[in-house]
Every structure is written in C-alpha cells, then in structure tokens.
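Before drawing any conclusions, I looked closely at one protein, both as residues and as discrete backbone shape codes, quoted below without any editing:
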Amino acid sequence: MFHTLRQTCSESIEKRLNDQNLFVESADTTVKIEQGIHDATLLNAEENGVKTDFDHFYKYKMTKKLNSSGKEVTIKCYPFREIYREHYLKVISALFLNPNRQTLHARIEQGYVSLSDVAKMSHNELDREKASLDATRRNESTRTLDVRTEIRDGKTVCIPYEIQYSDEDPAWVEVPDSEIQCGKCKSLKVSIYQQQTRSADEPMTIFANCLACKSRWRM
C-alpha cells in the first residue's frame, strides 16, 4: 500500500503532466516517475545507512527563541521522508520548472532517457546546457588574464594578455585576434562558445565573450 506521501506526490506529478500536456503517448507516466523517485530514495538511504521506512523518526531538542527568551522544543525528524522529498523536488524542477526542460523532454521522448531514471540522474545530467555553461564560465574564470590599457595607432585600447606559467618566470602572451569584433569596444579579442538552448534536434546557439571589455552577447 502506498504511503500517503507517495500518494500526494503522485497526484502532484499527475496534475503537472496534465497541465503541461507532457508525455501523453507514454503509458503509466506518473507511475514510472514516482517509482523512479522511490527507487532513488531507497538507493540513497541504503548508501547513507538510513532506515528505509517512511514512518521511522528520531527526536532531538533545540532552543527556539521567542522574543528575548528561549524555549526548548522537541523536534521529530523523518530521514527517509526527507530524502524522498529531495528527489521529488529535483524531478519536479527538472521536468516542469527548469528553463531548459524542453531538451530533457526531447531526450525522454527520443528514448535516450527513461522516465524511471530521471530521479537517479545528477543535476548536471538533467540540465546539460547549464552544466556546459557553468564549465565554460569556470574555464574562463580560471584562465589568468591581464587586461592592459595601451595606445595603438594613436588610440587608447584594452589589450588582454594571458599569463602563462612554467618552471621559469611567468610570461605575458597577447591573446590573438579573432574574426569577431566586439560591438561595444570594437576589439577583436573575442572568444566564443556554444550552448544548446533549444531542443536537442536544433542547432546549438553561439555566444561571444569580449576579453577586453567583458561584454557578452548571443550571435
């Protein structure tokens, strides 16, 4: 018999599926999604030594401040329920709230991802676009650049240099020009990267980043 928490979450999933008209051709969609959440919860609980029982709880005491005085209260904690809720909220966000959710929907409809496996996937696996963008930003942030103001051809311009480290003293190497010009500062010191912002069967979007003035734009 379903625990009431599982029943409540199943009803919420069913409503969201109907509201957004998702996966209408798939049979037992709600059952697969919720069962995946429960399976992921069991796996996570077993890995962390948590008793796999929705009704298992422990108590602890804490001091709750009321105005200037404190009052000791007893708190009940249901660890298995908390793990279940975490997986449930992750699935709800990935399937119904995430701005990039259409790509995940396409991967599910094309058979690359199973509905029952969504809860077991990491946040990076669920949102590849954000993961790719975060990785690009990390690479940019770890790239050591020194932007200098110089006069060239009678004009004051910003020139980015990459600091390259070796066993000897660091070397400042000017970033080479690209074929793209920044619309703000007119520099050619522009790097580009691609990101999947639409469905998986559409081309990736190209973004540009000016290394001289830090402007970013979509191409």
Notes: The chain is about 40% helix and 25% strand. The mean pLDDT is 84. The first strand starts at residue 58 and ends at 66. Residues 195 and 205 are 5 Å apart (CA to CA).
